[in-house]
Amino acid sequence: MKKDKFDEIMSAIKMTDSIPSLPEVIYKINSLMEDDTVSVNYIGNLMTKDMSLSAKILKIVNSPFYGFPQRIYNLNLALVLLGSNTLKSIIITSSVFDLMKDIMKGLWEHSLFCGLTAKYIAKQINKNKQLIDEDLVFSAGLLHDIGKLIIAIQFKDDFDSIIKLAEEKKQIYSEAEKKVLDVSHAEVGYYLTKSWNYPASIYIPIRFHHDFMMLYKNENITKNYNVKSIADNKNKDKPYFSSNYVIETAIVNLSDILTKSLGIGFSGSIYVDEIKNEIMEILSIDLDFLKKIIEEIYYFKDELTVFN
């Protein structure tokens, strides 16, 4: 990465006032929900002061995507059913997606569909054993392209050049990005979400969603990684935990590729990267799994308006 451009983008992250200040709201909700002395009713009463957010939460919890058998009208019950991680994702959705719509047509649809797909893949993997936090994977998928907002807002000419180059050279967005900026939106997203003090389970998949093999082969990370794939861990007594989030990154990478393949939204280029064998291996999935997932997630496009 060119030091001058790196420093310029890091300064942009610190100075950008066009991106909503998310942490204060998110941390408040998260800390309250993790505090055993604070009641759900108290949190619900606080959230009712924001009618727009309250309405969105009730709309989402009653969407077919979550599939609860009865309609839920009580905000406090909705908070319990959704949990703190999903609530953080909803707040992010509310705060960021309007910007995505204004800056790049199709980016919010791509981002949301990727998040929904990541959560669904994790849910299928979790059927036999609870291995992955589905809501954290959803958040990572939702925010995987957040770095594009910084670039588009602060470096508009470079952003336009990337889109143009990707189209002219018929290449994926990240390849064009490296030629124009020598800094990727994944790196920018990583530093942005890390500066927000998000957990590594979110900012690591964001950083490596286009560079999965870099994470997969990094000896400094994987030397202490005792679980090579999900399949290796299915018969272990202890639940799966990845200190380097290879599994989560693999899911976001796969979800991003599937979202592009289905033509949902637009992420900067219509050209799609290939699914690497290592992704299939570490997730312990095959072509039949992929076909099933593709058939089922296609209908998520009808759910996008729920989050709009």
Q: Which helices and strands appear, and what pairs or packs with what?
A:
Layout: H1 3-15, H2 23-34, H3 40-47, H4 51-61, H5 75-103, H6 107-125, H7 134-143, H8 147-154, H9 156-169, H10 173-180, H11 185-195, H12 200-208, H13 212-217, H14 219-222, H15 230-233, H16 246-261, H17 277-283, H18 287-297
Helix pairs in contact: 2-5, 3-5, 4-5, 5-7, 6-7, 6-16, 7-12, 8-9, 8-11, 9-10, 11-12, 12-16
List descriptors.
308 residues, mainly alpha, Hypothetical protein af1432, globular
What this model shows, in words?
The protein is built from 18 helices and no strands. The protein is mostly helical. It has one domain: Hypothetical protein af1432 (Orthogonal Bundle). The two termini are 36 Å apart.
Please sum up the structure shown.
This protein is mainly alpha-helical and 308 residues long. It has helices at 3-15, 23-34, 40-47, 51-61, 75-103, 107-125, 134-143, 147-154, 156-169, 173-180, 185-195, 200-208, 212-217, 219-222, 230-233, 246-261, 277-283, 287-297.
